[in-house]
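Q: Focus on the shape:
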Amino acid sequence: MYEIAINGNKTITLNEKQFAFLKLIGQLGFSNFKQLTLLWSIVNGTYVGFSHSMLRRWINNYHLLKKHPVIPSQKKRSSNLSRPVYHLSSFGVRALKNNNIDYIPLEQLNYNSHNEECNEVTIQALFQAAFDVDLVNNSQLKPINQNLKNIVASSEFDLSKLDLRPFSKQVDNYKIYPFIPDQMINFTHSGQKCEVMIELDNRTENDNIQMKKIFNYIKYAYQHPQTQIMMVIAITDGSLPTYRVPKYSMPYLKVNNLLSKFKTYTIEHHGQKYSLVDLYRRVPNLTITIAGVKEAHVDIADFINNKNYISFSITELKLLANILTKKYKHKVVFQTNKKIDLDRSNYLNIQGKTIGYMIYNPNPIIYQPIKIGYEHTLDTYLDLNSCIPKNYIYCFPTRSRKLLVPAISDYYQRNPGQPIFSQKQGMIFQPILEDNINPKWLLQLLFAREHYYKYLYNFFTSGTIAASNTAHYEKLTYVNSRAYRIVNSYLQQAHVQLNNNSPRPYQTLHNIAIKTNSAKEFAKQLNPQDIPLEVVRSIFKQIPIKAFSSPYFPTSSSYVSLISSNYLYLPNHSNPKKRIQIAF
């Protein structure tokens, strides 16, 4: 508990979670209301709303926060804030100072859209890492406690081990470096120091400036060979609306322009010219990612949680081999590369490694090599340029939704790709867990039953979850039974098992609901598979947890199961909607 003195003799007491919340705000500088909600959920370890009444309490009763308003009459410059934000009061600053907690001093706060967007990337990354219940790709997760309260929290995430202080507070002699990142996150994995450096690109700096920034980080990584470093270039894309970019615009052109510039850029150092690519290849402890604000957080969260996608990728490649066998009537197998210790591979060091081969048994035998890649890294982009012409399959992690993958359009201008599958053609493999087979959704359904039973009761009695609900429910989607086996292994500790039953018709559940007096009592009678996915999305749109990574974000449900052959493409176009999908 933390005793904090306010005006006169007034003293307030904060618990550990409330103080952690105060500390996060102090180290980030300021946050808008939706960001405060995400931070509040992060420190609580479960989805929980931070209401306007709670905000008023922190401002008027606790006197720990202050509002920085948007002045309606001020000129709307592109860098101005378009919404109110909240920062520490002098009492909040004193509380951190008295507990030897570093913070951004009030006089150094710059209230602009650039810093707000950088905070968005950071907070989304923390939220993604905190609620990363990817049961498919992270088989060691235990995202449930005994009373099901934290059913959506990641057991891998520990906020107390993350250092979010400014670069100037974390790095000795920071003034000797020719850069200051917009945000720094420091942590350790298995005793190894790790650093995330976030650079927000609000589209006011040209590509040459970005290349010089990359060179500065290459030098920094070279000087710190024992530290694993991730530089994140996050590009303004309107996912957090600002006066500069008021609505979302897919940044694939900007991303690919930067990537193309990087591939050919040379820099002069001590009178000699060097290829930026060659210099980057010499520092294996540095990984650089380029993505829009809407997706940049994914790389950071994976790095924080040390996500390992390898085992499930191998499973999907084996399924792909089985499908190819059936389609071509001759044996196709996937064989792992015995020269690589896959058990010791981690999120970063597996990039660019040949993890195995697709072996085709016609005469003569054909070996098609396969590499693991990540959607936003410079490493993947460079490998696509070198490996696609050599007929590699580039395998991306199985995700809940499709992320932008770089294109190598120049190659396909010279060598038009074939829309029909060929083992002599390079391809990318990007499997997507559709909503109706995603095991994460079963946990979300169970969470909704435990915590949002009033919404469910309203839906099954009146056909809508709330008066303000505008969703249409003509067609309802349910989780496919394939996911139950995966989730049940995680539910054992909570003495809960999900049944592989078909969903009951709405009318049946409607009749039960109108005969039940209590919403909570009715919810206990629901099997998770009785709850339509559209209803859970509607619920999460009603509560104030607005995160790119939160579960209401819709993916498609176009396939009834994960059919691997549906996810093969050519990286021939920067616009993913215009890429060639491989047919059979």
